[in-house]
Design brief:
Elements lengths: L2 H12 L3 H9 L2 H11 L3 H16 L9 H34 L4 H21 L2 H11 L4 H8 L3 H19 L1
């Protein structure tokens, strides 16, 4: 089935063609931008939320032409709330992080870095090749499964190597 045939089937099922749906939702863009600017901290965030709302509304299978304005406004307001919730969560996490670490003096930061370097130098000598490889893969941001695939070992072997490496790190840091 071609893309045009698929689009025709969608438009027949909903009663409105996709291009007509875009025309319907795009007429609300400026109004939506005004709403989003009042609710979000930056113009970029407002534009992102408006664009997302327009895309979601235009791709809705059962878009009612008589209620497009209310529908797209509802989508936008919910996206703005989601954005504010995510920003609040990030701010709280940052606050907890700063509280946990407090104000670290430059001397303490240098000592912490030196201690971490010393632990890494001494640790690498004590780890097996597999433990080192899995630890490096995890430090590079790979999951344990991805590390296992990359190293051609089973997931259980990777988890075991990571557990042993963590134990050695704890013992050395204590």
């Amino acid at each position: 089935m071609t893309a045009a045939a698929s689009e025709t089937e969608k438009s027949v099922a909903s009663g409105v063609r996709v291009s007509e749906q875009w025309e319907l939702v795009l007429t609300h863009r400026e109004r939506l931008l005004r709403i989003a600017r009042r609710r979000l901290p930056t113009m970029e965030d407002a534009e992102d939320c408006v664009h997302e709302a327009l895309i979601r509304a235009a791709s809705a299978a059962d878009l009612d032409p008589a209620r497009v304005g209310q529908f797209v406004t509802s989508i936008l307001v919910r996206l703005c709330v989601d954005h504010a919730r995510a920003a609040s969560t990030a701010q709280r996490a940052l606050g907890r992080l700063l509280e946990a670490h407090g104000d670290v003096s430059p001397e303490e930061a240098i000592c912490d870095h030196a201690q971490a370097s010393w632990i890494m130098e001494n640790l690498m000598e004590r780890l097996s090749t597999r433990e080192r490889d899995v630890l490096r893969a995890r430090a590079d941001g790979l999951s344990t499964r991805e590390a296992a695939r990359q190293l051609n070992i089973t997931g259980k072997s990777a988890e075991a190597a990571l557990t042993r490496a963590r134990g050695r790190i704890r013992a050395l840091a204590a």
